[in-house]
Each structure stands twice: as C-alpha cells, then as structure tokens.
Amino acid sequence: MISEKDLREQLATCTRIFAMQGMIGVFGHVSVYQPETKRVFITPGMGSDKGSLRAEDMLITDLDGKPLEGREGPPVEWPIHTALHGARADAVAVAHLHTPYATLFTIAKREFQPVTLQGAIFSEGVPLYPQAQLITTPARGSSLLKVIGDKRAVLLRGHGIVVAGQNLQEVLFASLVLEDDAKKTMQAATLGEVGTISPEECRAFGAEIALERRAQRAWNYFCSLEARWDRQPATGRSELFP
Ligand SMILES: [Zn+2]
C-alpha cells in the first residue's frame, strides 16, 4: 500500500507540474485513491492556487464525496473522481482539466484520433460526454462512466477532459500526451490534411507495453523542472516532445 504521506506528496507534485505546464489553473482538480482504506485524496477546488499546493493542502473524502479531512469540502465536480475510483480498479488516479488544446476537441465537431506514436496510448479513441453540464451529482458521474467505458480518457462537451490511470505518473503522462497530440493536430492542420495513426498501427507500436517506463521517465523529468520552477505563470514549462 502506498502511504498517505507519499500519496499526498505525489498528488501535490503532479498538480504543480500541471500548473507549470499551463494545464490546470482556476479550474481543474486531480485525485488519487487509496483502495485499502477507500479514501479519495483530492486537490482543492476552483480558485485555489494549484501551482503552490503542498501535501498538507489535500482534501480527503469517501466514495460518496463525504468530506473526511481538510480545510474545506471537495470541488463541486467530485463525482467525476468518485465514480471512476469506485468502478474501475485501473482508475486509481484521475485528472479533470480544462487544458487549452484538448478542450478544443470538446468544442469542434471533430473526433480526437492519435497523430503521433506517443498518442498510440489513445488507440481506442477518446469518447465525448455529450451533455453541456458540470458533473456535480452521482447520477452524472454514472453517465460519465457509461461514456468512458474502459477507456483512458473522455472529453466533456464545451468543458474539458478527464484522464484516468493506474497511478499519478500515468495520469500525468497520458494527459501530457493527449494535450500534445491535440496541439500537434491543430498545428499540422495548418499545413494541410492531417494523417492519423490507425488503431492497427497503434497496437503494432505497443505503446501500452512501455507505458509504465515512459510515464516514470516523464515524471522524473518534469519533477526536476518543477523543483526549480519560480512559480511565475508561463515559466518553467516544457514541451512534452522533444
Ligand atoms: Zn470542469
């Protein structure tokens, strides 16, 4: 079992990296689940300074969103997190973000498809939750579960994204990849028709097999950038590739 101290530290670090990368700000939250105690560790909600979050700032709830610890209640969209943590053993960590590029795929009438080899972890596509509403009730959390199924991520119409993973390292990496592929799709579109990586090509590349190692290396890299980040907006950040 990962200790509470480590979960808190990793959650704070992951969120500060998202802030450094401009992927979380006024909106967005990240959570990690401790299955052994059925407790959800989640970042504070709207308006909190994600770039300066510390381990001790994290809130704890049960799977019904009931606050157990922390200075305030959980973010209003807590059902996103509890629905996934409760239903899927592979959704130990969950990020809900309003990232600049991937969010455009929740607005444009265009399906997300991977365009890079890294993006092959999204070979199954990224479905769209069609209702233009916040996920503020368990019923909406259940609807979200039906849309995401066993996939890694879901787009929320006119709103943002949700990414799930086995741990925070995987969620950080998958979120960076999704954002990067969304951005590259748009940039490549200015040059002409965009070629996508087919599901067969994705499987042949075997991105899933190397995911754990890649996610850990990206985590280490961004942790070292974050450690020397001066916390001024738009500084410190790095492209995922190169
Ligand atoms: Zn939101």
Mind explaining what this structure looks like?
This protein is α+β, with helices and mostly antiparallel strands and 242 residues long. The protein has a single domain (4-227), classed as Class II aldolase/adducin N-terminal domain (L-fuculose-1-phosphate Aldolase). The chain is built from six helices and eight strands; from the N terminus they run αββββαββαββααα. It has an eight-stranded mixed sheet with strand order 4-3-2-1-5-8-7-6, sandwiched between helices. Strand 6 (128-129), helix 3 and strand 7 (153-156) form a beta-alpha-beta unit. The longest helix has 22 residues, at 168-189. It is globular and about 50 Å long. The mean pLDDT is 95. The chain binds zinc ion (ZN). Residues 27, 77, 96, 98, 159-160 line the site of zinc ion.
Features:
globular, eight-stranded mixed beta sheet, alpha+beta, L-fuculose-1-phosphate Aldolase, 8 strands, 242 residues, binds zinc ion, single chain
Layout of strands and helices, then pairs:
Elements: H1 4-20, E1 29-34, E2 39-42, E3 59-61, E4 67-69, H2 78-87, E5 93-97, E6 128-129, H3 138-148, E7 153-156, E8 160-165, H4 168-189, H5 199-205, H6 211-227
Parallel strand pairs: 6-7
Antiparallel strand pairs: 1-2, 1-5, 2-3, 3-4, 5-8, 7-8
The structure holds zinc ion (ZN).
